[in-house]
C-alpha cells in the first residue's frame, strides 16, 4: 500500500502560500508546485531538491521493423554510446541543471551480461507478446531495484527517461489499454513519421489492442502483451519511488504511460508525480488528464531521454525557493495595517 504525501504538510504549505507577501494567486503554478513538494517531503517550507537523479531506460522494440518509426532500430544501439559518452541532448541539459544521469540497458537488442538486461529487444506487439510473464515481473523488479539504488545514493527527486526506436508505439498501446480508448486517439508521429507512417502505426496499435483483448484489463498482463522490457522497468521504477515516498518528475509519453501503468498496478502512485512537460504525442495528454497532472512546460519537445523532465527541474527548485524565502505579509505590514 502506497502512503500518500502528507496532508498536514500540504495544508500548512497552502496556508504559507496564502500568507506570502505577494498578491493572491500571483505565483500561479509555481505556488502549486511548492505545495506539492512540501507534501511529498512532509515539511514546510520544502527544501529545494539537491540530488536529482535521472534513470534512462533503454530497449528495442519489435514494431520498429514494421514502418512505425522514421529511423531504423539500429539507432538505439548507436545512441547508447552517445549517452554513455555524455554527448546526448539529455546529458547537456543534465549538466546545465545539476542532474545525475544513469543509463539502464534493459532490453536493447544485443548481447549483454549485465544483470539488469532482461532480453534482446521486445516482441512486435501486433503479432506477439512483448514479453513473457516472467520477463515482465523481472523488468518490474529491475526498475524497482534501480529506484532503490538511486534513493540509497541520496536522491530527493527522481526522473524517468527513455531510449529506444519504436518505443512510442507500445507506450501508446499502454495508454489506450489503460484508458479504454481506440488507437487513433493516442497515436502520434513519434520520431516524425509521415502520414503513411502514422496510418501504419495506428493500425499496428489497433491490431495489438485487439490481439491482447481482455488481457489488457490486468496491468501485468497488459505490460506482457503490449509493453516492452524498458517500459515495464520504468513502471517498476516509478512505483518503487512512490512506495519509498520520493517524488518523481515525469517526462514525455513513455514516462507518463509507465506512470499510468504503475498507478494501475498500485493506486496512489500519481500523487507522488509531477509532469515535467507536455509531449507532442496525444496519448501523453490523455494519460496526464487521467492522472490529474498538468505539465510545467510546453516547449514542443519530442527528444525523449528524460529531456523534458530535466528541463523542468529549475522550476521545482524555484518553487521551493519561493515558498521558503519570500517574506510573509505579516512580517512586512505594521500590526494595525
Overview features:
Rossmann fold, cobalamin biosynthesis, alpha/beta, elongated, 5,6-Dimethylbenzimidazole Phosphoribosyltransferase, Chain: A, domain 1
| The CATH homologous superfamily of the largest domain | Nicotinate-nucleotide-dimethylbenzimidazole phosphoribosyltransferase (CobT), large domain
Radius of gyration: 20 Å
Q: Write the element-wise H/E pattern from the N-terminal end onward.
A: HHEHHEHEHHHHEHEHHH
Question: Number of folding domains?
Answer: 2
CATH fold group of the largest domain: Rossmann fold
* Helix content class: 40-55%
Strand order of the largest sheet: 2-1-3-4-5
Q: Which architecture of the largest domain per CATH?
A: 3-Layer(aba) Sandwich
Q: Which regions have little confidence, pLDDT < 50, spanning 5+ residues? A: none
Question: If helices are DSSP runs of H or I spanning 4 or more residues, what is the number of helices?
Answer: 13
Q: What average pLDDT do the residues reach? A: 95
Q: In terms of structural class, how would the helical and strand content be classed?
A: alpha/beta
Pathway: Nucleoside biosynthesis; alpha-ribazole biosynthesis; alpha-ribazole from 5,6-dimethylbenzimidazole: step 1/2
Enzyme class: transferase
Family: Belongs to the CobT family.
Active site: 305 (proton acceptor)
